[in-house]
Specification:
The chain contains 4 helices and 8 strands, in the order E-E-H-H-E-E-E-E-H-E-E-H. With about 180 residues, the protein is an alpha+beta fold. Helix 3 runs antiparallel to helix 4.
Amino acid sequence: MSCEKFIISGASVCLKGKLMRFLFAVLFLSVFTTPVAAQNLKSSAPQGIAERIRSLGYKADLQTDDSGDPVIVSATDGSQFHLVFYGCQKGKNCEWIMFYKGYTLEKDDYVKVRQVADEWNLDINFSKAAMGDDAVHLTYHLLMNNEGVGPKIFDSNFATWLEEYVEFRKKVVEAAK
């Protein structure tokens, strides 16, 4: 049987038969090709972010706020939260996203929940609590440049938000009892 010679990195390789050529082709393609990179998620493309959230098993209802900027309404643990898009020009080309949830408080709960918010801000690195006149707000900012962020980075940020949001909600509800 004749031999088909290939030169690989200066070495001559002899492949006999169709099976050997096939195996060589598979090996070559697996070594010298890279998988297609997953497309980055961009704050300027809210539909892609909504689709990613849905692919993670969560609801993602893409809406617009009063100024025409995109907002994604989602939920976990039986409670809604929002992804609010900022730095937009007429509802497009948004620069960053803020995960957001607000809770309206009864007057009697304000002091107890303020203590929860203050402790939260001392102990937690990513999301931050802020007190309003009659509410407490939890926010988490995800900054994106023009290239966006990869799906793994988005997923990690989304998971961090969900974990902190659920924990904060429990603390606020407990304090307001």
